[in-house]
Amino acid sequence: MAKLLMVAGLVALAAFAVGLAQETEQPKSVLTVETELCTGVEERMPIGMANSFHADVGQVWLWCRVQGATDTTLVKHVYYYDGEEMATVELPVKSPSWRTWSSKKILPGWTGQWEVKILDENDIVLKTIPFTVSPAIASDEGEETE
């Protein structure tokens, strides 16, 4: 009888654990993304790829190729500076393989840790891309060169 109660308890515990695991699973998106942080986009391709920029960069761009859309949808690029949301850009996705991009102006005093989260239309995070903005390089004005 004790073995029977122990087995029943283990079965109940296992069922509880499976239920708990199902509740905490994050929903999956059908979309996948390939990304590049860069200083610009030319002919629909990124240029000046980097994950660290100087504060005098002016703008940082996020280029991405979205794959897997079965109908017209959208993705969002959400820019964060030191954990605070600074901008959200909604971008249409109109085919199964679609290139799109957004940019964020960077003011000289906004140095530190940044990240961009790419979300699908259901706000599922597809990818998080961290980057750093460091102080601008001081110019050597006034120095003579030969």
**Strand order within the widest beta sheet:** 4-10-9-6-7
Structural class: alpha+beta
Q: Which second-level CATH architecture applies?
A: Sandwich
Q: How many strands, which pairing sense, and closed or not: the largest β-sheet?
A: 5 strands, mixed
General shape: globular
Mean pLDDT, as a whole number? 86
**In CATH's first tier, which class applies?**
Mainly Beta
Order of helices and strands: HEEEEEEEEEE
- In total, the number of strands is 10
* Count of spatially separate domains: 1
Q: Output the CATH topology.
A: Immunoglobulin-like
Rg calc: 23 Å
Distance between the termini: 97 Å
Q: Provide a count of the helices.
A: 1
Structure description:
There is one protein chain. The chain has one helix and ten strands; from the N terminus they run H-E-E-E-E-E-E-E-E-E-E. The chain has a single domain (32-134), classed as Macroglobulin (MG2) domain (Immunoglobulin-like, Sandwich), CATH 2.60.40. The chain has one helix at 2-24; strands at 32-38, 40-42, 45-47, 52-54, 59-67, 73-81, 84-93, 97-105, 112-120, 125-134. With 146 residues, the protein is α+β, with helices and mostly antiparallel strands. It is globular, with a radius of gyration of 23 Å. The model has no long low-confidence stretch (mean pLDDT 86). The relative contact order is 0.21. The strands form three sheets. A five-stranded mixed beta sheet has the order 4-10-9-6-7, with no helix packed on it. Strands 1-5-8 form a three-stranded antiparallel beta sheet, with no helix packed on it.
